[in-house]
Design goal:
Oligomer: single chain
CATH superfamily: P-loop containing nucleotide triphosphate hydrolases
Number of strands: 10
Strand order of the largest sheet: 3-2-4-5-1-6-7-8-9-10
CATH class: Alpha Beta
Shape: globular
CATH topology: Rossmann fold
CATH architecture: 3-Layer(aba) Sandwich
Distance between the termini: 67 Å
Strand content: 15-25%
Largest sheet: 10 strands, mixed
Order of helices and strands: HHHEHEHHHEHEHEHHEEEEEHH
Number of helices: 13
Radius of gyration: 22 Å
Length: about 350
C-alpha cells in the first residue's frame, strides 16, 4: 500500500480551488437555457435547412474536402446567406484564392447575375452590392494562424462587431503558435489555441485539404481524412464537402455537432444535404425538401440591397445549366469561377 506524502501536498503551491467550477454557475447557465437566454445558432429561415446547419457564436467549425470539390466556394455561399439574413460580419483569410476574385464571386451570387454584366447594365445596383460586401467581409493578408487571430483582436478592440474568422485552408498557413516542425505536435498546439480563441473571442471556420492519400483515393472524404487532423479534432462542428464528378452537385455531410442544444444536427450518411451550384444561383435539397435559387429567395425576404421585386415574380426559378468545368474548374485549381 502506497503512503500519501502529506508534507509534500501541504507544500505544493498548486491552488486546486480556483479550478473548481461552482455548481451554482452551472445551474445558472441551465436556468438561462430553460428561459431561452442562451443564444442558439442562427440560420437562413428555412426550417429543414436550419435543423442541420446554423451559425453559432463562439464555436469552432471545420470542413474537409478534396481540392477542386468546392469547399471554399460552398462555404462562402453559406457565409453570404447568413449575412443576408442576419447581417453578420466575417474576417476572411483566404490563402489560396485571390481576394479580388473572391469578391467577384460573392457579388455574382448576391446579384444573381455575373457582376461584370451588372456593372455595365446597372452600375448603381452594382455599387450597392459592392458596398454591402465590403460591410460584411473584411479581408486580411497574413502568413500565420496566430497573426489572423491577432488581427481579429485588433479589429474587435477598434469596435468592429465580428461574428467569425475564416481560415481557408488552415493547412496553407504557418501556425505561429508552435513551429517545431512536428506536424502533429504543432497541430495540437494550434488546435488548442484556436479552441481557446473561439471561447474567448469569436467563432472560427477552418477548411482543410485531406491527406494526399485521401485526395488520390476514389470516393468521398471525411473528417478523419483531414490533413493536420489534430486541428480538426478540436472542432465542435465538423462536416465534409464532396462533389459528384462531372456534375455541379455537392454533397454536404455533417458528421459531428457537439452541442445540439444550440442547434444543428448530423446528416445520415445516405442522405447528405445536396447543393447545386452555379456562379450566380444555388439550389438546396435534403430528402424530400427542396428550395430553388435560395439566395434570390432570401433577398426577396430581406432585401439587403433595397431592390424592387415584382410580387408576382416566381420566387424559385430553375438554375441555368452549365458544365462541370465551367462551374468548378479543374482539380489543379479550386473553383476557378469563384
Amino acid at each position: 500500500m502506497k503512503l500519501i506524502d502529506t508534507e509534500n501536498i501541504q507544500n505544493n503551491n498548486f491552488d486546486y480551488k480556483k479550478h473548481i467550477v461552482s455548481s451554482s454557475e452551472i445551474n445558472n447557465y441551465i436556468d438561462k437555457y430553460h428561459k431561452g437566454d442562451i443564444k442558439k445558432g442562427f440560420g437562413i429561415g428555412v426550417e429543414w435547412v436550419d435543423k442541420l446547419i446554423v451559425a453559432k457564436e463562439n464555436e469552432f467549425y471545420a470542413v474537409v474536402g478534396k481540392k477542386g470539390d468546392g469547399k471554399t466556394t460552398i462555404q462562402k455561399a453559406w457565409f453570404l446567406m447568413w449575412s443576408i439574413v442576419n447581417g453578420v460580419k466575417w474576417v476572411c483569410a483566404f490563402k489560396e484564392n485571390m481576394d479580388w476574385s473572391t469578391k467577384v464571386g460573392l457579388l455574382s451570387q448576391l446579384l444573381g447575375d455575373f457582376e461584370n454584366k451588372v456593372a455595365k447594365e446597372n452600375p448603381i445596383l452594382h455599387k450597392k452590392a459592392s458596398e454591402w460586401v465590403d460591410d460584411h467581409f473584411i479581408f486580411i493578408d497574413v502568413e500565420s494562424i496566430k497573426e489572423a487571430t491577432e488581427a481579429c483582436k485588433g479589429l474587435i478592440n477598434d469596435g468592429e462587431k465580428i461574428h467569425a474568422l475564416i481560415l481557408d485552408p488552415s493547412n496553407s498557413f504557418d501556425s505561429g503558435f508552435s513551429e517545431t516542425g512536428n506536424d502533429y505536435y504543432d497541430g495540437r498546439k494550434t488546435g488548442k489555441a484556436l479552441l481557446n480563441f473561439t471561447k474567448e473571442y469569436l467563432t472560427v471556420h477552418v477548411s482543410q485539404h485531406p491527406t494526399m492519400s485521401a485526395q488520390r483515393r476514389e470516393g468521398d472524404v471525411f473528417s478523419y481524412d483531414a490533413e493536420m487532423g489534430a486541428i480538426f479534432n478540436k472542432a465542435s462542428f465538423t462536416y465534409n464537402i464532396n462533389r459528384t464528378r462531372g456534375t455541379s452537385e455537392n454533397r454536404i455531410g455533417i458528421e459531428n455537432v457537439r452541442n445540439k442544444l444550440t442547434g444543428g444536427g448530423e446528416t445520415h450518411p445516405e442522405y447528405p444535404l445536396i447543393l447545386h451550384w452555379s456562379p450566380t444561383k444555388i439550389d438546396l435539397r435534403h430528402e424530400n425538401n427542396e428550395i430553388k435559387d435560395v439566395i434570390k429567395f432570401l433577398k426577396m425576404r430581406h432585401n439587403p440591397l433595397n431592390e424592387y421585386f415584382d410580387q408576382g415574380e416566381h420566387q424559385q426559378p430553375k438554375i441555368t445549366g452549365i458544365s462541370a468545368e465551367e462551374a468548378f474548374g479543374t482539380d489543379e485549381e479550386d473553383f476557378t469561377p469563384f
